[in-house]
Amino acid sequence: MKIDYALDMVSPVRYVATFIDERVPSRAPSLDELVANYRHVNRGDLARVRKEEGLSSDSEAERWIVEQAISELGKQLMRDGDVYRLTVPFDELRYKRHQIVREVS
After folding, report:
1. Given this model, what pLDDT does residue 8 score?
2. Are 46 and 40 in contact, with CB atoms under 8 Å apart?
3. Angstrom distance (rounded) from CA 65 to CA 85
C-alpha cells in the first residue's frame, strides 16, 4: 500500500524488526503484542493517520502504523500462525535499500 501523506515509517520499521529479533527464538511476538508495546512519538503522524485512514483513536492509528511497518518489511518477515519471525538475520534487514539500525531502549 502506498501512503500518500507525510509519515515517518523508519521508526516503526526499526521497532518491529528489533522487537521481533529480541524475542526470537524463545517466543515470537504476535501482532497484538507488537501493538501493545509500541508508542509512536510523533503525535502529528498519529493525527494524519487518524484523518487519512478514518480512524477514531491514537491507539487505532498506532495499530495501523505497526501493520504498515510489517507490510514494509515484506518477505524479510514471515507470519507463523499468529506470530511473526524474521526470515533473514537482523544485520541483513533492509528498508528502502538501507540497513535497519537496531532500536535501543
Report:
1. 86
2. yes
3. 18
1 pLDDT higher than 70: no
Q: Report pLDDT digits (tens) over 37-86.
A: 999 999 999 999 999 999 999 999 999 999 999 999 999 999 989 999 99
Long-range contacts of 85-90 (CB under 8 A, 24+ apart): 85/20, 85/24, 85/28, 86/17, 86/20, 86/21, 86/24, 90/17, 90/18, 90/21
What is the phi/psi pair of residue 98, to 5°? -110, 145
Sign of CA dihedral 11, 77, 101, 6: negative
User: Which phi and psi angles does 80 have, rounded to 5°?
Assistant: -120, 95
Q: How many CB atoms lie within 10 A of CB 43?
A: 10
**Residue 24, pLDDT above cutoff 80:** no
CB-side exposure of 75: number of CA atoms within 13 Å?
0
Whole-angstrom Cα distance, residue 69 to residue 17?
9
Q: Which of 66, 17, 78 is nearest to 38 (CA)?
A: 66
